[in-house]
Amino acid sequence: MRTQVAIIGGGPAGLLLSHLLHLQGIDSVVLESRDRDYVEHRQRAGMLEQGTTDALRDSGVGERLDREGLVHHGLELRFGGAGHRIPLTGLTGRTVTVYAQTEIVKDLVARRLADGGDIRFEAEVVDLDASAPRVTYRGGGETRTLDCDYIAGCDGFHGVSRPAVPGLRTFSRDYPFAWLGILAGVRPSTEELIYASHDRGFALHSLRSPTVSRLYLQVPPDEDIAAWPDARIWDELAARFATGDGWKLHEGPVTDKAITPMRSFVAEPMRHDRLFLAGDAGHIVPPTGAKGLNLAVSDVIILARALTERYATGSETLLDGYSDACLRRVWRAEHFSYWMTTLLHVDPAATAFERRLQRAHLDYVASSEAAATSLAENYVGLPIE
Ligand code: APR
Ligand code: PHB
């Protein structure tokens, strides 16, 4: 069996890459270890930069996104019992869109299948050869090989692609906290997202639709979810979001509950021979600011352009520049996610001095147009080169 590009992983990165290549007449096969239902229902951050929305729309998969996505023009920083609005659009001329990753994955799977695309679910890659190049996968009780021109490693943080890059240099930071996230069947208590910094810890009020709220609480990194019955979650959220003006948090049935660790991670380079890493396979950001999906999208846009050039002209110039081009953007987002995380969370080891500095920084971002603009331009996303 043979294809032009073997794509390992059917998350947002692998699926979008397959779609972008198809638009350029390039064949691919997506090998995904999980089943379709699993990848279509995995809960992740759902905030799209304008560049991500544009890319989905321009490639013809934005129809439902345009109908159901919620366009946001600002966000709220809440601390000291009061809210401070950051007018994202006023400061940058750009917007962000709330649209769940589950829906992006559903749209991409549907589109690939409608276009005759080859997505193999429950096909786990067990070996790859970046020089042949070739991937070996297991599915339906059999082991098969797929020969190709290039391999795209879009298999997330725990995949097999990254370990196949020899001489990799990695950079990482683990944070002394995690996020407990819930989905709740209740009308959001806010129109714009609220990022709350409180002495009890960070909280985020996001949303999924006019009837579904998405909320997060900072918890200790090794926290047992059993310690968080629904009533405790609502009490804690109410305490961290409390303001002096009678603002009320709407409570409702919790339909999903999970704890996510917080990590920053970058692997360099993102290429070895004919293997290219993209998305979470190459880098992880903490979820504050929701850069993960947006980085996965910019990686595969850069990779699709490079492969298009290669097949159209034979030139490998863009492929040779792939890792550097991605890493410039990755490191900017790494810094922003780290910055926003440390600005808003309570580090249990922080000294009183450090807590006062953090508060001074929050006051500065909330009161200085220059500081707020810096947050805003990173939040709405810097242009893809
Ligand atoms: N063989 C085949 N598929 C694999 C293998 C393997 N050996 N290992 C992992 N996979 C699959 C996983 O099951 C998963 O569906 O690769 C896919 C990787 O998808 P994601 O984890 O969603 O990663 P990515 O597509 O890069 O998307 C990045 O995900 O974690 C979030 O916040 C992050 O939004 C960002 C997005
Ligand atoms: C989300 O809606 O899941 C979300 C939004 C913004 C973030 C993180 C997560 O910064």
TrEMBL record:
Keyword Oxidoreductase recorded: yes
Stretches assigned to the FAD-binding domain: 2-337
SUPFAM superfamilies cross-referenced by the UniProt entry: FAD-linked reductases, C-terminal domain, FAD/NAD(P)-binding domain
Full protein name: 4-hydroxybenzoate 3-monooxygenase
Any GO MF annotation of the entry: FAD binding
Pfam families noted in UniProt: FAD_binding_3 (PF01494)
Superkingdom of origin organism: Bacteria
Source organism (scientific name): Actinomadura soli
Keyword annotations of the record: FAD, Flavoprotein, Monooxygenase, Oxidoreductase
Source organism phylogeny: Bacteria, Bacillati, Actinomycetota, Actinomycetes, Streptosporangiales
